[in-house]
Amino acid sequence: MKKFLVEFWKSYSIVIVVIVIGLVLGLLAPRFLTKDNLINVMTNASLVAIVGLGMTLAIASGNFDLSVGATASFAGCISFSLVPILGVPLSIIAGVIVGAVVGLINGLIISELRVPAFIATLSMMTIVRGFTLIFTNGRDLYLFGQTEYKILSGQLILGISTPIFFAIGIALLFGFVKKYTRFGRHILAMGGNLSAASRSGVRTSFVLWGIFSIVGATAALTGMIISSQVLTANARLATGLELSAIAVVILGGTALSGGQATVIGTLLGALLISMINNGLNLLNVPIFYQELTVGALMLGALAVKMQKGFKISSLLRSRS
Amino acid sequence: MNQKIFKLITALLVLSFVLAACGSSGEEATSESRTIGFSVYDMQYGFFQDMEAGTREGAKDAGYDYILVDQKSSESTMVSATIDLINQGIDALIISPFKPDALGPIVDAAKEKGIPVVVNDIGGGGTDYNVIVISNNYEGGVMAAEHMDELISAAGKPKKVASITCEASAVYAARRNVGFEAKIKELGYEVVATLSGNSQQEQGYKVMQDILTANPDVSGVFSCNDPMAVGAAQAISDAGLSGASDIFVIGFNADEIALESIKAGDMAATVQQVPFEMGKMTVELATQLMNGKTLAYDNAELREIFVPVNLITLDNIPN
Amino acid sequence: MIDENNEIILGVQGLTHHFPGIVALKNVNFDLHKGEIHALVGENGAGKSTMINIIAGVLQPSSGRLIINGSPTTFQNPSDAQQAGISVIFQEFNLVPQLSVAENIFINREPTRFGMIDWKKMNEKASEVLKRLKIDIDPRLTVSSLSIAQQQLTEIARGLAFNAQVIVMDEPTAALSEREIDQLLSIVKSLANEGVSVIYVSHKLEEVFKVADRITVLRDGVRIITKNASEVSEDDVIFAMVGRALIHGRCPERKLGPVVLSVKNLNVDNFIKDFSMDLHQGEVLGLGGLMGSGANRVIEALFGLRDSYVDELTLDGSALAINNPRDAIHSRIGYVPNDRKKDGLLPDLSVKHNISIGIIERLKKVFWIVAENEQEITETYVNKLNVRCTSINQRILNLSGGNQQKVILARSLAEECNVLLLSEPTRGVDVGAKAEIYSLIDSLVDSGMAVILQSSELNEFIRLANRVMIFSSGQVKGELTGDQITEESMMALATRV
Amino acid sequence: MTVAEKQIKKFSVKLGWDLLWERYGIATVVLIAWVIAFFFVPNFRNPDNMLNVIRQSAFVGCAAVGMTIAIISGTFDLSVGSTLALSAYLGLMVVSTTESVLLAILVTVLVAMLIGLINGLLITKVGISAFITTLGMSFIVRGLSYIISKGGEPVRYNAKAFIWWGNGSFLRIPIPFIIFIICALAGWFILKKTPFGRYVFSIGTNEKAAKVAGVPVQRTIIFIFIIVGLFTGISAFLIGSRLYSAGPGLEPGFELSVIAAVVLGGTRLAGGRGSILGTIAACLLYATMGNILNLLHADAFVQRVAVGMILLLALSIEGIRQRIFEHSSRRITTLEIEPNSNEYQGGQA
After folding, report:
1. Do A142 and B260 touch (CB under 8 A)?
2. pLDDT (tens digit, 9 = 90+) per residue, C129-171?
3. What domains does chain B contain, in order, with CATH numbers?
4. What per-residue confidence (pLDDT) applies to A319?
5. Among A131-135, B13-17, C103-107, which stretch is predicted with the lowest mean pLDDT?
């Protein structure tokens, strides 16, 4: 519990930002602080948070995944097309597996062909989107009236939606994995010092495959939740998800250099972006102001963080 | 070792050509017959797939060879790919431009080779094209506004509507919203929100949720395209309401999903364009141009031919 | 002493290993008895590291075999070696800075309970290990917050944390102070008494003779001798290592000129307080002390790498301010960093570019570099320092440690500096290159340069310095000159609180 | 020479292969692709077509020259796409109102350089990592350009003096390609012949050591971003002129194409190694690939897959070579040979 508080405190800066922005938006847009709206905000935050949590592991290991948007749409399409054959529960599971397999391929390319993660997943982004287009023939797949699939995005208990449970569940799971499993510690070890990890006998390739499979699976889940919201899947789904996911992780305070990760931070980062988008929509502000705000916030948050250790020498050294 | 590298390079090239060949249409240009080139906006969208199908069928019926390039929603790809097309010795160019403003170099290159240019929809960018077939976006928006007024008045709901726009860079599609908003205001309505859903279905869903929160008494929503309209309709039905009877959702394009959504009772209407027919029509116009005939323009000054847009509701939905 | 009848726990037979284009090991035989401390010595590039990596499972030999407890074995990866009871302490830091000391000690061997990592047990076990080694570090601290010496000790603790049959130590004392080294050596001995076998790799023959039962010397991938330590002298071993005898000695007579660099009341990091000194032309001033005593910080502050406050800093009588390394280089102060890999090498660049980087702006005409000048200058220094490379366009990465160090030295010399700050100039350098570097320093000083030398090897001061200032917890505890400079007197000052 | 030295020499000859591939690999691939396409791809040998291919390579190419310098120094710039759109848009605004092409060039380039300067200052003075700074900046600049244009309507201008830059030719050679080659020569000169270039390599290979060696790290980083801005500005001007128009939504994903081209050209993402020649070749390869796929009438969806696959394959070659190599001489880890056993960690930011 004490450790939990320490970790929580570490990301306090973002907690304060979340609260302040929440209050400001509440003042500006009175409907912002209604229960329904807050649930909407959290639901939308959860979508990015789920894939963001996967991305947190990838970034903690010193890697990236730019293919999550493509994977999300691919999994959504596969899962939709399987519903008539397998039924809803099995096709959802199939979607997650498909995502994990795409992730595994990413991992294999990175470890076996030694292509840097950034470029490997960038190529995979194009390839997977292309495959999805070929698979769907560029058409929409829809399940109107198939209310069973709504389980992924609908409300469960007390009006709280499934994605929120997923996000919190996955956060708890990853928090546990990070802290209490060898796999989790080895992810951090790899991110901190790759050669030390491999010389200590950590099977870095296996860990890498695991990480990317997990990222793929979380991306697939996000993709299917989005598909379930609109009951449609196509190859254009979730474009730009990769950048949102990375932005959320960075805002949350996970360092890009690897070796360290904050699961709670990622959740809060997602909440922050979702709040801003929602608040500005409520205020009827054009979308490009939202982009501007997210960009400024990202730089602002990190600039403030840098100021914490403000010293001339730290300015000299902290460039990464 | 260098042999291995060489082998790898060869393998790489062979693979790339195999891949390329897989996708090739297999239609070889013959010198006797005429060749029509079509440069499409982006085959990812159902609307343009239909347009392409119409163009292809028109070309086939007329006995032309047919070459397609895809602009993939990028203006520089639009220019380079279309010029690739022109350099293959086509006899007429049909283009559905991603950015009409960037048509200049394409039209100039075509004119230099004496190739007639038929623009299919979107816009002509003030260039020297031969003819443009255009379904009137502004008029479609107006039509949607009129229908929405009928629905809202009949239901006796408050005169408050919202408008969902495409991504900011899609300036031509934005005219639909401009037409809608102008007409609906004229009819005495308040437009409570104009927000972008980036043309994406999931964004349409999110934006609609936010509109519902900020304006629970909104009675109608017009969306710049059908995917966003369907997304918005889903958000409304997730809120326990109906997009066909509580809050009237009208989209644009008559995409398959929108028709399904109307059938399912989730959405009120959509403004139909006829991309397939437009495609066929452009081939006919190209034929006339190649044969040196003068065209009958609807607007001679801008060399425009209008294609009517239709309102599709549950009553007149095609099967 | 080793009992010949004692069982052979690890045998190496006919070991040969090829790197692309290099035969790193040629038909090497080696054996290790139970409870034996077997030292493996040789110059850099002699094949020691290759052999260790094979024993550790990091590399697989081209031919030859390992015999563990009498049965031939192959290791596919480091885990296999670990499971066979072999524990390796590598020379380079092998720690994950973001993780705790305990985790680093138990990485990949974390104690688990019901599949979960048992943090309590891990921390307890780590404290036990650290206590056994008399290391005073809280196992829950993150490694990045430790000093270099503490990190090195953590590294050693990791190697010793398991009930390994065989412990391989590759230059374990490189970053340790004398006191810590003695502590470590006594631990090694007690481990041997408990029946653990140790392969001890070191450049420092003094240490080797303190602990080793037997000594094997490698040269150019070939085993030269294996002898009982009691049967050979230090000179015999050196002869075997380099193929010729080396001359040791004391610092030659230095002719001091006027004061070059004068420092009054230097304060660094709230740790060094009011340090003052005058450095004369032709002088080698040693700054000594145990790890963490602060000598290193003084040098880094003088070179502008640390924030510092100073009342007065004068060079040749005129005041100057040094805020970053560029200022220092402009004032003709050169620096050779102790961590060559981290702070010195530009690994992807050629020897030429590594030398010329500090003076590149002086070599330009208008705004481009005059290639001939650069070529000429770098060739001059490569020849002067006898850097062994195939061409000055060769990547520095492909040189041996000693030659890399000479290139870094050449960089400072090319800057035509009058004051040279040397931090551990011979760390990780083999015996032959070490002697070359020593005589080079002699000739530089003869030609009028002033040198500040910081080292953790006290021998180095005896050989080079005509004056030594000894630090302890940030303060100068005493100054020794000439014949006063002995290991005993320096140690006495260094351990004064 | 001792045995060890001979071995080192032999080894460095062997090691030459990866450097050779790094430097000339993609150039060779381009040559082979051109030869094959010349004989087997219908219409490829049409001079108009070949000239169009090299013209096309220039638009990404100019910006890629700047990005090559950034990536060699171990940083990179994700904001070039947004910068391109904003500066091209402002340039078009200027030229369409003042009809002065010179002024348009100045505005386009200076705006881009200003954004580069801001990036550089944020990275060095505030200490935010380059990845985050430029990612955040890309959002901000993209938003700004929509706000300035009040919604995204593009500006159009087609006076001969302006569009000549993107569409004209000199002795049949496309002007953009000539400018690309000039940019590339300038980039090569900067990297290889100036102290600044040496600093770029030093920072990329080991930033701390570069600082200790007296390299003005901060100043160099700021300059690098200004130079990235400069070359991006040139690309922006050429694209604006090529398209007779520019809007704030210009070229989404441009930054990723540029980075992909640079990395495909053999520049190491982790910094310290790379070449302009490779970048030129990679830009040509991209343009050639797109052209060949179009000439073969490849399906648009298949094209996407093919382009990704080819990129992946080209980048795997070095890894595959290493593996074959290791297989043939048992297993060699990078411990003694290579400085960074972090080879496949990638994605350094």
Report:
1. yes
2. 888 777 888 888 888 888 777 887 888 888 777 778 888 988 8
3. 34-134+275-306 (3.40.50.2300), 137-272 (3.40.50.2300)
4. 32
5. B13-17
CATH architecture, domain defined by D17-31+43-337: Orthogonal Bundle (1.10)
Q: Distance (Å, rounded) from C-alpha B4 to C-alpha D18?
A: 13
Question: And the tokens for A168?
Answer: 């919190």
User: Per-residue pLDDT averaged across A183-195, rounded?
Assistant: 90
Asked if A147 and A231 touch (Cβ cutoff 8 Å), the reply is no
The DSSP-derived string for D171-227 is: TTEEHHHHHHHHHHHHHHHHHHHSHHHHHHHHHHH-HHHHHHTT--HHHHHHHHHHH
Please state which of the four CATH numbers 3.40.1360.10, 3.40.470.10, 3.40.50.300, 1.10.418.70 is assigned to the domain occupying C246-332+417-497: 3.40.50.300
Q: Which of B168, A238, A70 is nearest to D142 (CA)?
A: B168
Average pLDDT over chain D, rounded to whole?
86
- Residue in chain C nearest D206 by alpha carbon: C346
Task: State pLDDT tens for residues C36-64.
Answer: 999 998 876 678 888 888 888 888 888 88
Beta-carbon separation of A291 and D142 below 8 A: yes
Cross-chain CB nearest to B214 (options A145, A237, A282): A282
Residue from the list A116, A289, A320 with its beta carbon closest to the beta carbon of D347 = A116
Q: What confidence score (pLDDT) does residue A316 get?
A: 33
Per-domain residue ranges for chain D?
Answer: 17-31+43-337
Mean pLDDT of D277-306: 92
CA closest to C357 among chain D residues: D213
What are the beta bridge partners of residue B95? B39, B119
ipTM of the complex: 0.85
pLDDT of C206 higher than 90? no
CA within 13 Å, CB half, D210:
30
Q: Which of A139, A229, A283 sits opposite B202 (nearest CB)?
A: A229
3-state secondary structure of C171: coil
Question: Distance between CA atoms of A26 and B213, rounded to whole angstroms?
Answer: 13
Asked if residue A228 belongs to a domain, the reply is yes
Q: Residues of A205-236 as b/e, b for ≥16 C-beta within 10 angstroms? A: eebbbbbbbbbbbbbbbbbbbbbbbbbbbbbb
Q: Cβ–Cβ of B13/D305 closer than 8 Å?
A: no
For domain C8-242, which CATH number applies: 3.90.550.10, 3.40.50.300, 1.10.10.10, 3.40.190.10? 3.40.50.300
A93/chain C closest Cα distance in angstroms = 26
Q: Is A124 on the interface with D (CB under 8 A)?
A: yes
CA Rg value for chain C: 24
Q: What is the pLDDT of residue A306?
A: 60
Whole-angstrom distance, CA of residue A38 vs CA of residue B235: 15
Which pLDDT score is estimated for C460?
84
Question: Residue A158 contacts by C-beta under 8 Å, 6 or more apart in sequence?
Answer: none
In a domain, A285, yes or no: no
Contacts of B198 in chain A (CB under 8 A): 287
Inter-chain CB proximity A232 and B230 less than 8 Å: yes
In chain C, what are the domain boundaries?
Answer: 8-242, 246-332+417-497, 346-415
What is the residue range of A202's domain? Answer: 45-239+254-261
The domain tally of chain A equals 1
Q: What percent of chain D has pLDDT over 70?
A: 87
Nearest to D336 by CA among B196, C113, C50, C203: C50
Residues of D in contact with A276 (CB under 8 A): none
What digits encode the pLDDT tens for the residues B155-190?
999 999 999 998 877 777 888 999 999 999 999 999
Chain C contact partners (≥3 CB pairs within 8 A): A, D
SS3 D168: coil
As a whole number, the mean pLDDT across chain C is: 85
Interface contact A286-B195, CB threshold 8 A: yes
